[in-house]
Specification:
The protein has 239 residues and is mainly α. It has 11 helices and 2 strands, in the order αααββαααααααα. The chain has a two-stranded antiparallel sheet with strand order 1-2. A hairpin with a 5-residue loop joins β1 and β2. The termini are far apart. The relative contact order is 0.15.
Length: 239
């Protein structure tokens, strides 16, 4: 296949519409995603993917508010950090810190809207592009390998998978983002003050003088709202 043919196929994938599956298929993928989020054996892998989106949210908002992005690091314990330079206080810093925990739910909601419009391939290729862009800013080997594996996996399904495999991947990703986004905040809410020290809500508390718990609850409420809207978009039968 020539380069022109490759780009033509990619453009066709991104701009085409795919049939929206029947409700039973959507609910089944949602149930599988819920198991992956709740099961102790699979949660760390899901959380790593959530961390990728979390750090992407920090990085994107850092650039949007005029900060200088320095790099992203992803760690094997599913934590991550995004480094940027700029004013240490102010609305821009607050927005950047809050963006991390909001990003998975927002991306999940966007994914749900795309799937409802029959744009599953556009969603998958968009995630491949996101992985490639983040790879440019990752500053550690583990983070680079994680992004290559995630991006390549989605890319292979998007390019070589059949319509069923592509639909399964797209709906699983959307459900995972929506269902997994509240869990890190719930874990943080249940953690002691020592474990919350240095977290995004802890930094937000120091910037705004609102208690850490208030910030955790605000971010959790936003994630739960995104989950409700996302579920009503993917599976209105449930609501």
């Amino acid at each position: 296949m020539s380069t022109a043919d490759t780009w033509a196929r990619l453009w066709g994938d991104v701009t085409s519409r795919q049939p929206v599956p029947e409700a039973r298929f959507v609910l089944l993928t949602g149930a599988v995603a819920a198991l992956l989020v709740l099961a102790p054996g699979t949660w760390p892998r899901v959380r790593l993917a959530v961390t990728v989106v979390h750090e992407a949210g920090h990085a994107l908002v850092a650039v949007l508010v005029g900060r200088r992005l320095q790099g992203i690091r992803l760690h094997s314990d599913t934590s991550g950090v995004t480094l940027s330079r700029g004013r240490p206080r102010g609305p821009g810093m607050v927005a950047m810190l809050a963006a991390g925990y909001l990003a998975p739910a927002l991306l999940g909601l966007g994914a749900a809207l795309a799937l409802a419009a029959g744009r599953s391939l556009a969603l998958l290729w968009g995630l491949v592009v996101l992985s490639a862009l983040m790879l440019l800013w990752v500053r550690n080997l583990y983070g680079a390998l994680a992004l290559v594996v995630l991006g390549a996996g989605v890319g292979v399904v998007s390019w070589a998978g059949g319509p069923t495999a592509q639909a399964v991947a797209a709906y699983l990703i959307a459900w995972l983002l929506l269902l997994a986004s509240p869990r890190p905040l719930l874990e943080l809410l249940g953690a002691g003050a020592a474990r919350r020290r240095g977290s995004d809500p802890d930094q937000l508390a120091r910037l705004t003088r609102l208690p850490v718990v208030v910030w955790v609850l605000v971010l959790l409420a936003a994630n739960l709202a995104g989950l409700v809207v996302g579920v009503s978009t993917l599976a209105p039968e449930l609501l």
